[in-house]
Amino acid sequence: MLTLSLLRHAKSSWDDLDLDDFDRPLSKRGANAAPEMGRAMRELKLKPDLVLCSTAVRTRATVALVLLELGPPPPEVRYEDGLYLASPTSILGQIRKTAKSVRNLLVVGHNPGMHALALELTGAAKREDMAELATKFPTAALANMTFDLDSWRDVGAGLGHLVVFMTPRNLA
Question: Which residues contact 148 (CB under 8 A, 6 or more apart)?
Answer without folding.
Answer: 1, 159, 161
